Amino acid sequence: MILIRNLNGKDPMDFNDDTAADRVGRRIKKTRMEKGLSRAELGELVGLSADRIQKYENGARKPKSDLLKKIARALDVETIALTDPVVSNYLGAMYALFEMEERYGIRIKEQDKRIVLYCENMKGGLADYLDEWMRECKYIDSKLAAATSDEEKEEINKEYIVWKRTFPRAIIERTEEHLRELERKDIEDQINKLQKQLSELDKK
Question: Taking the model in full, what pTM does it have?
Answer without folding.
Answer: 0.72
